[in-house]
Amino acid sequence: MQRPEAWPRPHPGEGAAAAQAGGPAPPVGAGEPSGLRLQEPSLYTIKAVFILDNDGRRLLAKYYDDTFPSMKEQMVFEKNVFNKTSRTESEIAFFGGMTIVYKSSIDLFLYVVGSSHENELMLMSVLTCLFESLSHMLRKNVEKRWLLENMDGAFLVLDEIVDGGVILESDPQQVIQKVNFRADDSSLTEQSVTQVLQSAKEQIKWSLLK
Amino acid sequence: MPPHLSRRRRRQRECAQARGAQCACAERRATWPAAARKCPGKRPPHRRSEPPGSDVRLLRGAAPASTMLKKFDKKDEESAVAKAAPPVSCGSRTLAFVHSPARVFNETPINPRKCAHILTKILYLINQGEHLGTTEATEAFFAMTKLFQSNDPTLRRMCYLTIKEMSCIAEDVIIVTSRQVPGGRAALCPLFCSLTKDMTGKEDNYRGPAVRALCQITDSTMLQAIERYMKQAIVDKVPSVSSSALVSSLHLLKCSFDVVKRWVNEAQEAASSDNIMVQYHALGLLYHVRKNDRLAVNKMLSKFTRHGLKSPFAYCMMIRVASKQLEEEDGSRDSPLFDFIESCLRNKHEMVVYEAASAIVNLPGCSAKELAPAVSVLQLFCSSPKAALRYAAVRTLNKVAMKHPSAVTACNLDLENLVTDSNRSIATLAITTLLKTGSESSIDRLMKQISSFMSEISDEFKVVVVQAISALCQKYPRKHAVLMNFLFTMLREEGGFEYKRAIVDCIISIIEENAESKETGLSHLCEFIEDCEFTVLATRILHLLGQEGPKTNNPSKYIRFIYNRVVLEHEEVRAGAVSALAKFGAQNEEMLPSILVLLKRCVMDDDNEVRDRATFYLNVLEQKQKALNAGYILNGLTVSIPGLERALQQYTLEPSEKPFDLKSVPLATTPMAEQRMETTPISAVRQPEKVAATRQEIFQEQLAAVPEFHGLGPLFKSSSEPVALTESETEYVIRCTKHTFTEHMVFQFDCTNTLNDQTLENVTVQMEPTEAYEVLCYVPARTLPYNQPGTCYTLVALPREDPTAVACTFSCMMKFTVKDCDPTTGETDEEGYEDEYVLEDLEVTVADHIQKVMKLNFEAAWDEVGDEFEKEETFTLSTIKTLEEAVGNIVKFLGMHPCERSDRVPDNKNTHTLLLAGVFRGGHDVLVRSRLLLLDTVTMQVTARSSEELPVDIILASVG
């Protein structure tokens, strides 16, 4: 039996020990003198994805490598990240030797964590995809209450976006399509078709504008 | 009853019921206190996902577990959410497991909603970190097989997810037990079959997730059974199936590399897929399989880069692979790989463009010209509306600025705009980049800008700013006053330990660089320790005060600060303060009486350590002997602490008449002073030091295990880096480490045989000395199979007749017996033949006989050793044109430690005094003072002192 989660090794100087000390870890990325990308080219891009509520409590979390091997370390990390990010309106932070992209929506905070060497835009694409997919699934009500009521959907969405740290899909439309097949729920499918069209339109508009 | 009343009544009744339900919850909690208490504040997703408009009706009357919840209606929940208080938990564990999931799963007909609901709960519990009970988890896991009878899509998908989740959470519980218990394996089989069926079934939506779930619970033996399906799945025309299969194969590589390797052709086919994700995953898998085969990787690169890729992710992957290849080739930038990376700068996806730019920036030894296009791309990104892109750009520019500040100067305007960015991380990075690229004149302005938002950024970035300032100080020493002021303002503000430590480090390095800043620096640091919560920093500053304070013009003003520590602080700081006081007393005659008075007060201290130190220093100082002061107060112990501990323990175990000899203790391999990092990266340096300290211990243990080396005495020194005696790409790779003992040397040869069709036996390295060294014995490496490192030793005695002739060249030859062996089976022929292999010459120099030692106060040590064995000679270094070069060469040649920062030659001077300290083998202190004079060439006057005659002779003989 394999544990793919154990595959990508945490990078030295980051992770639990670093983040536990309240954050002041050796600033691996920002101040590092070594210009070399120490990282092996790899598909394992994502270290963790988690969603917290506006008190910093975990609603959903997936860790894909053993940077934070125990639940306790994970919780501490989440708490620190939350404390650092919840008050500011920016979308990217550098913490504990890791790059964290995040997004808040009403009373939810969505986080995607990657190594400090990771392409920030890749992390961003995962975050965007997660948000868009959830937003679609929850009909634009990306808030705690609806998320809790649709927890199964949220699990499935995340499962379709990241698998064991590898980005599986980055297009929200595809994700929705793969997750959303409630044949018994006609109203939902109807609406989802119109929504799909709607957002497809937006997508086209957006790409034209660009 | 009138209708309106009845309605109201009904509502009241409902409310009452709702309350009742909550009471029921409370009761339940009382019934299972342990279970409920375990998860206070946990919020179970207590309702199956209903689209917001619909009702809970479906759940009513479904199961007892849900009936209990039905009254828990939205109003309660909203208020709970609004109050942000933990919503009433009805004991999530209870819900998921008291009604045994296995039982619900086994109900016929299957109730898909209820089952999916339970699965969601299980997932949620796992997610919240609950520990599942072994039996219930195992039961639920295997009962899931039953659920495959239902065709409800959501339920099916939840099954896959739960299988995946439980298989890794409870891996040891479920899978291992299922392997150990007879029939456990069989229990896994139905699940396995159901998944295989789904994987190959008609329903496309099931297939992808089924593949992933299946691979998660597969081990290498079971993998054989599904290999065929996996191959088909990889080339499946449905992208999600193909992607899933590829990613799962990637996960499987770790445990079943050999099986997955066989799927390369399929992956190759998938790599040309039109779907962007499939292409990305296929390329990733191909690379992971082939990454050890440079040629294959190169071929892959050229193939896919020529035709162009569809997926931006795949581009990023290829850029990384290409830059890694380039890095390893270490060669020219004309290669097609570099062209490929550069061409990606014009890609239409920002992600790819950024990846390419960052790859170019990270390439070692990139010239400014090659960087230019990358930098201009990054410059564009600086004005992007996306924070992530701006962040990425500034971070990368910051990296460029470290090596090529001039290349970034063009972006200064854009960077200055980013200083006011709302994202403080971006602003900080922009500032620090500007600090690196900016000119001397812009420093004042930048510092003002930084101070405006310093309070808003996190400690982590403050450290980055401090490091930038520290670099700046080295670059523009004249600006130290401005920078120092800024640092002190920062020091006074709130901050964590790392941040404060960075500041203190930076200030200390400024003090060391600039003599004129010493007084202000020290007095500011004094102020800082008046109110310093960090013991480590306080003791460090006290140590510095003790070292530098007595040499200042007005040493007495520091005494008050130090003595305040004795009065106010806790014991560690008090002990540090006492030591600092003693150092003042030892170096300053005038202050000695008052210091003695102060120390006498400390003798009454509550703490043992403080009292001991005070008593000790008091007694030493009262002797009023310079040599004692130097040996016991100013220059501390130079032995390695773990070594001392071991030696003392050994001594107590075997009591003998002889007093304990401190000279038998190995010296500290890294002198303490190197802790004070000499350059900017403050955090990085600590690690290797520990390794170095234990390295000698490891050698000592290894050598002690060889019977031939008994009786050599303690290991004096091991050379720091193994010397390669062969080229790196030859048949055999030999590296030598020199170990010096009092009368002998041991050469340790680490050998690796890189021929897979040979096994070497009885490997020795024959050595022919040019001087009077005498080879005593060879300890062979018995066998040396392919690619397994082995070690052989050669023991030599040092020359006795002419003890000064320590520098020597050995010619080396490896002798061994070759036995051919079959590379595939590993079988070795019986018959072997003798062979030889010529190695490069090995040099033994003076440095191998001298251990570096840090003397904090060289003058005191110089006086302590005395001039009994002092010799002086003058040399002309005709080939050396600068003082720096001369200093560097002398330090390297003698292998001694430069003291009091005398290895730094101040600019624009033509004389310099280099002070070196070391310990000669056998434990004799050696001190060298070399005065250098630069005219056209460097003239050097060397004065050496030691407690023995021999070391002095050796040093002078070797220099000459």
UniProtKB/TrEMBL annotation, chain B:
Record membrane topology: Peripheral membrane protein
Record GO terms (molecular function): structural molecule activity
InterPro entries: ARM-like, ARM-type_fold, Clathrin/coatomer_adapt-like_N, Clathrin_app_Ig-like_sf, Coatomer/calthrin_app_sub_C, Coatomer_g_Cpla, Coatomer_gsu, Coatomer_gsu_app_Ig-like_dom
Domain called Coatomer gamma subunit appendage Ig-like subdomain: residue spans: 698-845
SUPFAM superfamilies: ARM repeat, Clathrin adaptor appendage domain, Subdomain of clathrin and coatomer appendage domain
Domain of life where this protein originates: Eukaryota
Region feature Disordered, mapped onto this chain: 34-58
GO cellular component term of the entry, any: Golgi membrane
Keyword Aminoacyl-tRNA synthetase: no
Domain Coatomer subunit gamma C-terminal, residue spans: 847-959
Compartment(s): Cytoplasm, Cytosol; Cytoplasm; Golgi apparatus membrane; Cytoplasmic vesicle, COPI-coated vesicle membrane
Keyword field: Cytoplasm, Cytoplasmic vesicle, ER-Golgi transport, Golgi apparatus, Membrane, Phosphoprotein, Protein transport, Repeat, Transport
Gene Ontology biological process terms from the UniProt entry: endoplasmic reticulum to Golgi vesicle-mediated transport; intra-Golgi vesicle-mediated transport; intracellular protein transport; organelle transport along microtubule; protein secretion
Residue ranges constituting the Clathrin/coatomer adaptor adaptin-like N-terminal domain according to the UniProt record: 102-624
Main location: cytoplasm
Function: The coatomer is a cytosolic protein complex that binds to dilysine motifs and reversibly associates with Golgi non-clathrin-coated vesicles, which further mediate biosynthetic protein transport from the ER, via the Golgi up to the trans Golgi network. Coatomer complex is required for budding from Golgi membranes, and is essential for the retrograde Golgi-to-ER transport of dilysine-tagged proteins.
Family: Belongs to the COPG family.
PANTHER family: COATOMER SUBUNIT GAMMA, COATOMER SUBUNIT GAMMA-1
Subunit structure: Oligomeric complex that consists of at least the alpha, beta, beta', gamma, delta, epsilon and zeta subunits. Interacts with ZNF289/ARFGAP2 through its C-terminal appendage domain. Interacts with EGFR upon EGF treatment; interaction is essential for regulation of EGF-dependent nuclear transport of EGFR by retrograde trafficking from the Golgi to the ER. The coatomer interacts with KDEL receptors; the interaction is important for retrograde trafficking of KDEL-bearing proteins from the Golgi to the endoplasmic reticulum. Interacts with COPB1. Interacts with TMED10 (via C-terminus).
The name this protein goes by in its record: Coatomer subunit gamma
Organism of provenance: Sciurus carolinensis
